[in-house]
Specification:
By secondary structure, the protein is mainly alpha-helical. It has 8 helices and 3 strands. It has one domain (10-144).
Length: 145
């Protein structure tokens, strides 16, 4: 897991869930990564079984944030589990949305069953993104005019 601490207790809660489930031995925590160093982590992202985006939905800043890491995770074929923040809900068919401990556990178990889902995830993300390019958007606007 690539993770850093925001001004919330959600990361601590997630760490506690991981301890409760006894999966610390298969969990890696990395602090915030400087923008220039992100390309160095692409191989690590591709090796992840699951990537999480655990923002606190009660924190307005976190709730309305646009986590660009969603697209990095999806581009590498990682299963993504996210809290129900606004931006992730817009793409709800790409990441798994989990608003509670039980939903996180269910999403993680689903990801474990889908061990070879990487190519499907990448294809789903690319299919979605091809429909949302500037040129596709411009064509839609031209049709309305």
């Amino acid at each position: 897991m690539v993770c850093g601490r925001l001004q919330t207790t959600y990361v601590e809660n997630t760490m506690n869930w991981i301890k409760d489930e006894g999966i610390e031995y298969i969990t890696d925590w990395i602090s915030f990564v400087e923008h220039e160093k992100v390309p160095e982590y692409v191989a690590a992202i591709a090796a992840m079984n699951v990537s999480i985006i655990p923002f606190d939905v009660k924190n307005p800043t976190a709730y309305y944030v646009v986590p660009n890491n969603l697209w990095g995770y999806l581009s590498q074929g990682a299963n993504v589990v996210s809290t129900p923040i606004l931006e992730e809900m817009a793409y709800r068919r790409l990441p798994s949305i989990a608003g509670s401990k039980d939903e996180y556990v269910a999403a993680l178990k689903k990801a474990k069953r889908e061990k070879n889902a990487g190519k499907r995830i990448q294809n789903d993300a690319m299919t979605y993104l091809r429909r949302r390019t500037w040129s596709v958007g411009a064509k839609k606007i031209r049709k309305r005019i």
